[in-house]
Amino acid sequence: MSTTATATAVAPLTIQDAEALVETARRAAETAGVAVAITVLDAGGHLLAFRRDDRAVLIAGETSTRKAYTALQLNAPTADLVDAVQPGGLFHTLPTALDRPLLFIAGGVPVHRDGRLVGAIGVGGGAPEQDHGFATAAAEALAA
């Protein structure tokens, strides 16, 4: 007799979800007077949404995308990983060992639905703690 576990399907991150994430993060940044870029990736690492403020530094687009990718791949906020890449840290060699766009600076946050990883948001352009706050606010608003 064979027993099989049935997994409950979790709805994937939609374009509507991605747009809501971008809008929430954008409003939080605008309220703080910070020009940012925002990237939203689905669970497969595919781009769902991207926005860069006209006044955001150009590199903000790249950093927001790498932060989202890092948060997605490691299923953790990038703010929680900063110490792990320091000398002696668990992931010290990870940034140079892989040919992947990882970035261990605060501002990337995984997005969960019903306890499952469905994507990630990355924000770049402000101070790392600001970017983290904007991304977290967006992820929390979507989860509510």
UniProtKB/TrEMBL annotation:
Pfam families, per database record: HbpS-like (PF03928)
Protein name: Heme-binding protein
Organism: Streptomyces lavendofoliae
